Amino acid sequence: MQSNSSIFDGILQNNWWDRSWSAGVKWSAGSFGVSGGMALCANLYSGGALSVGHAKGFFQGANILQFRIKTDQGTPNVAINIGSGQQGCQPQQLTALSSAADQQGWSLYSLNLGQFGTPAATFSGCGGLQAWDLEWVEFKDLAYAQQTICLDLIKLV
User: Fold this and answer.
1) Structural contact between residues 66 and 110, judged by C-beta atoms closer than 8 angstroms
2) Are 76 and 69 within 8 A, CB to CB?
3) DSSP H or E run through 17
4) Which one-letter DSSP state was computed for residue 56?
5) What pLDDT digit, counting tens, does each position of 68-89 carry?
6) Quick one: which of 10, 19, 58, 150 has the fewest CB in 10 Å?
């Protein structure tokens, strides 16, 4: 894993890139993020996703995907997933998860990467993919209607 595991902190970090589809993404939506910096917001259209990609290897050594998502208007109906190419792991529905903390309308989620594969304390793979193979993180619309999501401080730890 990179020494700085940040994916988004005011801007995309560490050579991550946008791979979203059916989404209008605002990478600098406004200075209302948890840290007081820029937040990332996306209008997700039916079945669309806010998704970011990176070259293979960034997930190596990581155990947790951590992010803050704006929940003051309710919990967005999205599934979080990781994967490589067209192959995803086991998606996690946000509404079924518990937040670790809430602060000023933002909820902190810390997802053990093992949740995306065989339930384990560490990621032991999914569908033949190992941690080294993983290339993306996505937040996919499950509402099948337009919804807006805002995220901040996305990182692997």
Assistant:
1) yes
2) yes
3) strand 17-18
4) T
5) 999 999 999 999 999 999 999 9
6) 19
